[in-house]
Amino acid sequence: xxxxxxxxxxxxxxxxxxxxxxxxxxxxxxxxxxxxxxxxxxxxxxxxxxxxxxxxxxxxxxxxxxxxxxxxxxxxxxxxxxxxxxxxxxxxxxxxxxxxxxxxxxxxxxxxxxxxxxxxxxxxxxxxxxxxxxxxxxxxxxxxxxxxxxxxxxxxxxxxxxxxxxxxxxxxxxxxxxxxxxxxxxxxxxxxxxxxxxxxxxxxxxxxxxxxxxxxxxxxxxxxxxxxxxxxxxxxxxxxxxxxxxxxxxxxxxxxxxxxxxxxxxxxxxxxxxxxxxxxxxxxxxx
Length: 287
Prior knowledge:
It is found in: Cell membrane; Membrane. By secondary structure, the protein is mainly α. Helix content is 71%, strand content 0%.
């Protein structure tokens, strides 16, 4: 469970970096404020669905973290870590939809449906990027994929799959240019009516998803814990921190994409590009 603790600390660091870039209060102060804030209620809201959506988001992130290897070890010993991670992210975008639906608010409902549309757009490119790395390593085990890279990271000789994975990681956490489900144009979208502890749990899950997606990029494309001088688990943490910092930075530097444009790009650019990358990898592996 050490891996989950490290990822939790990195998530707090990501929230701190985001607060610095935004010039707002730090995560500890904001968490304290939300803990004592009164819950806001909307007429005819379904509290069960709302709370289920908010709570299942960090739960999905925590469950996904179980298969993240640090130094060749993971909290959950499974040979299908790629499948497990992909399943948990599907739970995540279902959670956002539940939170948006349950509060019985028009803006929140629009945000929830935006997340469903975004999930349908990014899921196929994301899945193909995962499969490309698994194909090169002949394994669905994240530990085996990291170990298979030797002296050449997969991110170097399959850059398209790596780039598509990073884009889909942002979409998975509805972050930066893919933050439309929580867009300001719909008063905060799926989280518009969430307040107090409910909002705190929901936002914590968002940072958790971003952190886990960054951590999974390390065994998939950045050689896992391989590196000179430092122990393997520390290299995993350092690489995760670097990817996470890059993803956090995009929120304040890139505009939010319109949903229809992202869907068009996903289906006409990302999917063909990553399929071509997979074909190249398959040819190299067969040879």
